[in-house]
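To fix ideas, we now present one chain and its tokenised fold:
***
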Amino acid sequence: MLGVLLCGGLSTRMESDKGLMHFQQNTWAEAAAKLFTQLDLPFIISVNSKQVKNYTSIFSADKLLTDNPILQINGPLCGVLSAHIKYPNHNLLVLACDMPLMQKDLLQILLNQYQTNAAFGAYYFLNNGQPEPLCAIYKANALSTIYQLYQDKKLLKHSMKFVLEQISSAAITLDKDQVEYFKNFNARTDLNGLDPN
């Protein structure tokens, strides 16, 4: 299992690189990386080529994986498939950097489901009936299927929700008290009440 921290988005609405924003003394990327460390999972940081300089000031260069240029894809799927191409035999625990309230216990629930029920290609949470594809486990064979669909020009959409529809997957319904950990921050107006220090 390999952790993949997705930081490669354009952060257009935030007008600032979300992974480099601060929360409780750490950048959002550092806070998420600590979760992987607490779970004793090796991890990589998925970035685009323009981010490398800034991220090497925080993480060692060998932790960074830039988007693979052969992929003509925008969005998180580019980072996920870039990681799969680099590590084709690894199952991936994917986490977006813009969920700074995420807790280790939630990721452990994913891992437990993956470890106790190996029949599925992906494991994710349902939040009010909607999938959370950016906090999920994707198995290597499932990602191989998605990559083949992409190469054959049969992947009709490049959204992670659509990806989940193409593979067998196990959904874990969130309890009401768990929903807050999945709060996603995309724009500066979303930051009201979030301690920036």
